[in-house]
Amino acid sequence: MKYVTIVLLCCSALLCACDRANDAGSAIDAAKDSASDAVNPGKSIYKSKCVACHGTGAAGAPKLGDKTAWGTRIAQGNAVLLQHAIEGFKGDKGYMPPKGGYLSLSDEEISITVQYMVSQSR
Predict the structure, then answer these.
(1) How confident is the model over 11-24, as pLDDT tens digits?
(2) Residues 6 or more apart from 49 whose CB is under 8 A from it?
């Protein structure tokens, strides 16, 4: 009986240690993501403000990485994409509010975010 208890305690200790190692790995991954976002502010803005619609397709928004949905938009040129992102746009497939509803974003922040989204969707 004592042997079984010792084995169970050792297994529990090993499982706890493995779980902590996974937590450390998750923390390292999160730190890498944060560093990547700092280097690419367009990605950071996308993740904090745009992903709600462009990650799910809500309100007809083209999903990030959907080459088919983005293809016709990209073909219109960067100036048109930027104008629609800044001023808003109502199309056949959906609605883009001005600056995605985040009017405090500068035109420059919108521009770098659009550039990031296009780069991920070509």
Answers:
(1) 454 444 545 555 65
(2) 100, 102, 105, 113
| 1: DSSP letter | -
Task: Report pLDDT for 4.
Answer: 55
Please enumerate, as own/partner, the contacts of 20-24 that have beta carbons within 8 Å and a separation of 24 or more: none
User: In Å, how far are 19, 23, 37, 39, 69 from 74, measured between CA atoms?
Assistant: 45, 40, 23, 24, 9
Give the largest CA-CA distance in the chain: 76
- Cα–Cα nearest to 89, from 104, 102, 100: 100
Using alpha carbons only, give the angle 89, 94, 100 rounded to the nearest 5 degrees: 50
User: Within the chain, where are the H helices?
Assistant: 2-39, 41-45, 51-54, 67-75, 78-87, 107-119
pTM surpassing 0.90?
Answer: no
Query: Strand, helix or coil at 8?
Result: helix
CB 44 within 8 A of CB 38: yes
Residue pair 9/16 in contact by the 8 Å Cβ criterion:
no
